């Protein structure tokens, strides 16, 4: 080893750290799934805990690194022909490095326990101000049911991949899966929770208030590896003011705004999809009743535009590999005219209240 000065020895790690910080900061430009912008009581509690842990870590890091640098400079063996003095054991130091971390661990435990208590149990004030939502995980999309909001036939309102909720209400989420284990996660609004077949899990959250006419959109994501398209099992959560939510939910509990199914839909789609008010009553695919007003297609994979929908129907596998659509509609099965007819029909299914185009 060349005999480098301590300052030179520190140059490379310091430069790496600085450069790394710059690169990481650049990554923060568009991060819709960040946990650093909490917008609910639960995520604020989690954020406050992580901030405490971060600053505790910074303090420990600074003390240890300062100590290390001082030791390297001050106690360096100046005469390299000599072996440094060998020492073994130091009772005072050993007691200190046992007690100090134990105190830190106890502090972390107390604050973590308090945070878990806060986010786990719905407060008493939630009574009378709760909206129940049922989440059903599918490979690879999300089904949302509103047991409290019924359509004309008495069935609960159903949507796919886009969950609207009223701000200021306690959202009581119960979840299950029809196939494998998924994980429900909206980083801005709630912590993660596993979504399991044959079992019901749950969590709650209360989104911060938003103004009338200014719904806030949050990105969500399956957070448990569930097969090839796990990364494309996304969702959007729209937090609307109570009045806007009321408008949206009353529209959504109606039948489709266009109940004249085109022939291509009857031929290819009704086996899997529901369009309320028509004879399309399949059960394996997302409910398409109000598809035209949704922000995205293919579970958040891409924006809901005519071009994207055309591409999706033309070759589903090219947009999202391995989905059931791929086997149901093989590439090139539909003619251009049929695809255009389907795009026209699906995009017409927009009841009005929508955040389409907002990201
Ligand atoms: Cu569902 Cu990962």
Automatic annotation (TrEMBL):
Residue ranges of every copy of the Cytochrome c domain listed in the record: 256-350
Cellular component, GO annotation: plasma membrane
Domain Cytochrome oxidase subunit II copper A binding: 128-251
Pfam families from the UniProt entry: COX2, COX2_TM, Cytochrom_C
Keywords, comma-separated and alphabetical: Copper, Electron transport, Heme, Iron, Membrane, Metal-binding, Respiratory chain, Signal, Translocase, Transmembrane, Transmembrane helix, Transport
NCBIfam families linked to this entry: CoxB
Protein name, as recorded: Cytochrome c oxidase subunit 2
Species per Swiss-Prot/TrEMBL record: Herpetosiphon aurantiacus (strain ATCC 23779 / DSM 785 / 114-95)
């Amino acid at each position: 080893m060349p005999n480098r000065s301590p300052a030179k020895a520190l140059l490379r790690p310091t430069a790496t750290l600085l450069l790394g910080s710059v690169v990481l900061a650049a990554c923060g430009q568009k991060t819709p799934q960040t946990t650093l912008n909490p917008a609910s009581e639960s995520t604020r509690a989690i954020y406050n805990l992580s901030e405490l842990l971060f600053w505790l870590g910074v303090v420990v890091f600074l003390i240890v690194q300062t100590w290390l640098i001082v030791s390297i400079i001050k106690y360096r063996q100046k005469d390299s022909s000599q072996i440094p003095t060998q020492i073994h054991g130091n009772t005072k130091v050993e007691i200190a490095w046992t007690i100090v971390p134990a105190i830190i661990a106890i502090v972390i435990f107390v604050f973590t326990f308090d945070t878990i208590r806060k986010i786990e149990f719905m407060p008493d004030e939630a009574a009378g101000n709760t909206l129940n939502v049922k989440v059903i995980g599918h490979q690879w999309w999300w089904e949302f049911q509103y047991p409290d909001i019924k359509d004309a036939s008495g069935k609960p309102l159903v949507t796919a991949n886009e969950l609207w909720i009223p701000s200021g209400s306690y959202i009581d989420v119960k979840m299950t899966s029809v196939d494998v284990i998924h994980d429900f996660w909206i980083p801005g609004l709630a912590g993660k929770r596993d979504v399991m077949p044959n079992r019901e899990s749950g969590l709650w959250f209360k989104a911060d208030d938003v103004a009338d006419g200014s719904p806030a959109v949050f990105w969500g994501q399956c957070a448990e590896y569930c097969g090839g398209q796990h990364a494309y099992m996304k969702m959007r959560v729209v937090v609307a003011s109570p009045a806007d939510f009321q408008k949206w939910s009353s529209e959504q509990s109606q039948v489709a705004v266009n109940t004249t199914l085109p022939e291509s839909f009857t031929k290819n789609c009704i086996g899997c999809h529901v369009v309320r008010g028509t004879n399309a009553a399949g059960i394996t695919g997302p409910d398409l009743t109000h598809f035209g007003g949704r922000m995205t297609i293919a579970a958040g994979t891409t924006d809901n535009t005519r071009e994207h929908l055309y591409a999706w129907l033309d070759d589903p596998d090219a947009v999202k590999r391995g989905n059931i659509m791929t086997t149901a509609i093989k590439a090139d099965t539909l003619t251009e005219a049929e695809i255009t007819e389907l795009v026209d029909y699906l995009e017409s299914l927009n009841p009005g209240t929508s955040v389409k185009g907002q990201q």
